[in-house]
C-alpha cells in the first residue's frame, strides 16, 4: 500500500497515511484516461455552430449573365460559393458531439489518474483545511507553504470559505469528492486533499 505524508497548513509534516491500493496503487491505464479526457472535452462542446449553404443564402435567383458570348466564365447564380455573399461549400451545422463512457471505464480512468499523482509524489494530504477567512491571501499562503502553484483542492464536502479563497487564483481549482473527475486530476500539477476527503474517496470509489 502506498504511504503519503500528512501536512498541516503551515507545510509541516505531522504524520503519515496509508492509502488504499484499490484506488491509489493501481497500474496506470493511459488508454482509459485518454478516452475519458476525449469524451469530457467533446461533451463540453455546445455544437451550435452554423453557416448557410448556397441553398439558404438570400438572392441569386437570376442568372447574372447569359451563358455564352460574354467572354466571361459561365455563372448560374450570384450566391455560388465563389461569389462574395455566396453560400459556404460545406457549411457547419448544429450537431451533438457527445460521447458516452461506461461507469467501469470512468472508474478505471479516475483510479489511474490518482495513482499516477501518488506515484509522481504530486498528491498532498492535509490534516485539515480551515481558513480563518475567505480571502485569497489566506489560500496563497497555504499554497506557498506547500510549495505548489497549480493545484486541485479536494474537500469531503463544499467548503464555501475555501472555494471563495481559491476562486481568484489562476491555476487553482476546488472540488468535492462527489465531483472528482479524471480530467481535473490530470489538468492540475498537484492534488491537495484533506484527510477526510481521502477517507471519503476510499469509501465511495472502493
Mean pLDDT value: 94
Distance between the termini: 14 Å
Taking the sheet with the most strands, its summary is: 6 strands, mixed
Counted up, domains total 2
How would you explain this protein's 3D organization?
With 206 residues, this protein is an alpha/beta fold. Strand 1 and strand 2 form a beta hairpin. The chain is 33% helix and 15% strand. The longest helix has 17 residues, at 103-119. It folds into 2 domains: 3-45 and 101-204, Ribosomal protein L4/L1 (Ribosomal Protein L4, Chain: A), CATH 3.40.1370; 48-96, no CATH class. The protein starts with a strand and ends with a helix.
Question: How would you briefly describe this protein structure?
Answer:
With 206 residues, the protein is α/β, with parallel strands linked by helices. The protein has helices at residues 21-24, 30-43, 103-119, 136-145, 160-166, 182-187, 195-204, and strands at residues 3-7, 13-18, 123-126, 151-155, 172-176, 190-194.
Key structural traits:
33% helix, 6 strands, Ribosomal Protein L4, Chain: A, 206 residues, six-stranded mixed beta sheet, 7 helices, elongated, alpha/beta
Protein topology:
Elements: E1 3-7, E2 13-18, H1 21-24, H2 30-43, H3 103-119, E3 123-126, H4 136-145, E4 151-155, H5 160-166, E5 172-176, H6 182-187, E6 190-194, H7 195-204
Parallel strand pairs: 1-3, 3-6, 4-5, 4-6
Antiparallel strand pairs: 1-2
Amino acid at each position: 500500500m502506498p504511504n503519503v505524508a500528512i501536512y498541516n497548513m503551515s507545510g509541516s509534516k505531522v504524520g503519515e497515511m496509508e492509502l488504499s491500493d484499490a484506488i491509489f496503487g493501481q497500474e496506470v491505464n493511459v488508454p482509459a484516461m485518454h478516452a475519458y479526457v476525449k469524451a469530457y472535452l467533446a461533451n463540453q462542446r455546445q455544437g451550435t455552430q452554423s453557416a448557410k449553404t448556397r441553398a439558404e443564402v438570400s438572392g441569386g435567383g437570376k442568372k447574372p449573365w447569359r451563358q455564352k458570348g460574354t467572354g466571361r466564365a459561365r455563372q448560374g447564380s450570384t450566391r455560388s460559393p465563389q461569389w462574395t455573399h455566396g453560400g459556404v461549400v460545406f457549411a457547419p451545422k448544429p450537431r451533438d458531439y457527445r460521447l458516452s463512457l461506461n461507469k467501469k471505464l470512468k472508474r478505471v480512468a479516475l483510479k489511474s489518474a490518482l495513482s499516477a499523482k501518488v506515484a509522481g509524489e504530486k498528491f498532498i494530504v492535509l490534516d485539515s483545511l480551515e481558513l480563518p477567512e475567505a480571502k485569497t491571501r489566506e489560500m496563497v499562503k497555504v499554497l506557498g507553504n506547500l510549495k505548489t502553484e497549480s493545484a486541485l483542492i479536494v474537500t469531503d464536502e463544499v467548503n464555501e470559505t475555501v472555494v471563495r479563497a481559491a476562486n481568484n487564483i489562476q491555476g487553482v481549482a476546488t472540488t468535492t469528492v462527489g465531483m472528482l473527475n479524471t480530467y481535473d486530476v490530470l489538468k492540475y500539477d498537484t492534488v491537495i486533499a484533506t484527510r477526510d476527503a481521502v477517507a471519503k474517496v476510499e469509501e465511495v470509489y472502493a
